[in-house]
Here is the input.
Amino acid sequence: MRILARWTEGRFHYAWIVAAGVFLALLTAAGVRSMPGVLLVPLMKDLGWDRATVSFAISVGIALYGLTGPFAAAAMQVFGIRRTMLAALLLLGLSVAATTLVRSPWQMVLTWGVLTGIGSGTVAMVLGAAVVNRWFHRRRGFAVGLLTASTATGQLVFLPVLARLVEAEGWRQASAIVAGATLAVIPIVALLVPERPADIGLPPYGATEIDRSTATGGNPLQTAFGALGRGVRKPVFWLLWSSFFVCGLSTNGLIGTHLIALCLDHGLPEVRAASLLAAMGVLDLVGTTLSGWLSDRYDNRTLLAWYYGLRGLSLLFLPFSDFSFFELSLFAAFYGLDWIATVPPTVRLATQSFGDRDAPVLFGWISAGHQLGAATAAFGAGVLRGSLGTYLGAFLIAGAACIIIAAVLVGARIDAARAPAAAE
Here is the structure.
């Protein structure tokens, strides 16, 4: 790593190499988390389970994906980012491999729910926030946007290929391939990502002094709950937590899990529906990166209000469309640009409100709200579809929730909404 750092000196800061390595890890984890949307219907057909049973296993994984966040952030402070990330990738790869042996619902809950939830929850948005806070003193918003966009790129890379593999070979073979790809990332991350800039003799990007601080030590549980105790005293925590609950309710819980099934209800083949999600991933790569650039320059509260309001309108539009190529393309463009554009402003507001020490852990707790919302949508939409025979109610609820939280954000006052000078 020091040799590569010396080569980059004078060309660009090594922080961008670290960002690339973390982007790859996040991309792989995003591919794993996007698989339920492709596997929902094949699992039902192959194993003879109903929609609610499969949706429950998926919702457990989504919930743990979020609940792992604050403890993962605390573990990164105590044990180090590098060790935590490598251990999580190993767990994620092995747990996805174990899903190929599933024969009963409890096994699906254990592997696809519990184990992949913990593994992917560690290699998630909290990892991006922790890396940016440690490696970037300037352009934090842009760096967060770039790393967050890995979720969209994960869909772009994996979904169409997975849909074709599932169609041709079956869901177990597709899961085995994803497990292998996840394990292959481990040596790349180990070679490219040092623990902190000082380990290779550099200050963070945009800083002039080398930060010699080390891991804090202590108990990760105490670190996680201690930060939570300080955070819940501030109204901004509950505002960001509630908004992120709605974010999860309206993105990976609903669209990520059920969009392909919704398209199948309207006669679209699975590969074409997966391609629609992939197209949305391409657009979100642009939208989230642009959101990071905007969050360095404009009021983050206002940006969030716009994002949620526009997302709500797109969700209300989709069930009333005719699912033609034109109207689906219109939805993909409108919704795709906004998929997770909410992350950079939320990370910025958390950092500005809670400081560099507590912000990564508290963002983990805020992300837990995101995934609880996603789990609610993943399970609730499955139940509504099973009982009512349509996804209409689920989309109306998610769209209305987005518009309500947008109105709350418009009326809220956040003293720390202005970007700090260090990030300019």
Q: What stands out?
A: The chain is about 80% helix and 0% strand. Residues 343-388 form the longest helix (46 residues). Residues 12-200+217-417 form a domain with the Growth Hormone; Chain: A; fold (CATH 1.20.1250.20).
